What we know:
There is one protein chain. The chain is an alpha+beta fold. The chain folds into five domains: 1-41; 43-125, no CATH class; 186-273, Nuclear Transport Factor 2, Chain: A (Roll), CATH 3.10.450.350; 277-375, Nuclear Transport Factor 2, Chain: A (Roll), CATH 3.10.450.350; 395-508, Glucose Permease (Domain IIA). The chain has helices spanning 2-40, 48-53, 122-125, 151-163, 198-204, 209-216, 291-297, 302-311, 526-561; strands spanning 64-66, 72-73, 80-81, 89-92, 103-104, 188-191, 234-239, 245-251, 256-263, 266-273, 277-286, 327-337, 340-354, 357-364, 373-375, 395-398, 418-421, 427-429, 434-441, 447-452, 457-467, 476-477, 482-486, 496-503, 506-508. β19 (434-441) and β20 form a beta hairpin. The chain starts with a helix and ends with a helix. Residues 1-15, 44-144 and 146-180 have low confidence and may be disordered.
Amino acid sequence: MGKIDSDYLWLHERPRSGSRLRRLALLLAIPLLGGAAWLTTAPEAIDTTTVLTGTQPSESPSGTHVDNHAVAESPGTGIPRSTTAPPVVVRRTDDQGTAQQPVVDAVSSTEDKPTSVAELSEADIALNEQQSGASAVPVAPLDPNRVIDDAETVQNTRVASEHIPGSIELLDDDSRPLAQGSEARAWQEVPIESGDTLSIAFSRHGLSYSDSLKIAHIEEHGRRFTRGLRAGDVLRVQADHAGNIKALQYPIDAMHTLEVRPDGDGFAADVVLTDVEHRKAYASGVIDTSFYVDALEAGLSDSQIMKLATIFGWDIDFALDIRPGDRFIVVYDELFREGEKVGDGDILAAAFSNRGRDVRAVRYTGGSDTETAYYSPDGHAMKKAFIRTPVDYTRISSGFNLSRKHPILNRIRRHEGTDYAAPTGTPVKATGNGRIVFRGRRGGYGNMVIIKHDTHLSTRYGHLSGFARGVGVGSRVHQGDIIGYVGMTGLATGPHLHYEFRVDGAPKDPETIALPKAMPLPKKYLPDFRQQTAPLVAQLDTLSHTEIARAETDSTAEAASN
Length: 562
């Protein structure tokens, strides 16, 4: 029973193992057989009628029925070529649809010669029945380097393009229209609003952002478009249709305009004088309260008053020399634009009567080797070799005195200069051109600077709180250059400048010494100088006589009233 059971089990397991293997083999064979059948089977026939005419395989435009058999195409061309597939049988029908004798198409057999495009009839290549029989249209070459010798062909191409919808006519180089994006538009105003930058203002008006950055980085003038922009300013801009800047004008003041223009990849700018009308005007007055107050009442502006003080500053000390009754006359330029006054120009001539002494000045521009400056009527420059005072002071705290009692040492000690009281930090200027020979601390002078002007003259500046940067021993300085700042170093009771003027080492009173005069105009310019300044001198004479007569009349009227 045990053997029978073993045989039974063995016989029972063998069929099961064989069945599993057959199923596995069947699963593997199915895809292999399918692939082999797909490779060996001829491709589905392509309907030549569909390829050539675009119609359905069941019906051709000429009324023929086509059996669907294989026709292969040449790679990349779409042109039929002969294959091993069965021939294409074409059955023509009459008007009633009755089938006629089958014929074999010339493109279906391997024994027939290959068919080329040139051998196809016009009816075969026509897209539809309406285009059958249409003539070919010559087309100009797309290659611009290709030379066409047949002028008639090109002419036919242009004529054909006029009649074919959607065609593009070829244009000669001379007949092509210019791009409108580069054409400049009319000038437009770009107002600057509160919080605007140049790029924001440009963006609001459709102008180029990149151009705004380039303009803001223009050397020397670019800062006017960054920190210089103010709300209320109005820019005049000319740009093309794409927003690229062609020109820009920025009015700086009534007399000057900043003009910006393209320059290579960036921009350049220049300040130009605005077209204005020049008119002469004059102002006159008598000192009663102070020069500044009385000059304002006469109609002069702050800048004109300061300029007048500068012109006469070498001859008159406006802090000490001014007395009641002194007179002044100023002839100056007024600027008008479109009939409205836009500002004051230069002072053309001036006269000042101080303590009975008349001082006059006229403005003159000579040749290339002379600068515009003010001269006396005889041709001597008003600017002297030295200015009288080296600092803008509030008062003279101590004058020149060789037997003064020192306020700190409490004994007689020579005071060899003049003390000018001024706030600490007030700039101290060189009174003339020269070279610094000492800069440092020296005894009771504290911080001091000594300037040697020539072999005879030198000046000293003491009690300084500090020295100007960039100047030291050996540095050359010019009249008006800052050399230090007011302080109270050394023996000093308060902030002031101690100033000395020495001739051959001997101290002289800075307030009374006769300062050296500047060189006169070269003789070659004197004839031109007299010709240009004669009308101004004559006007000063007339105004002086008028003012004197008016003053005498006022005095007589006042005496009569009393």
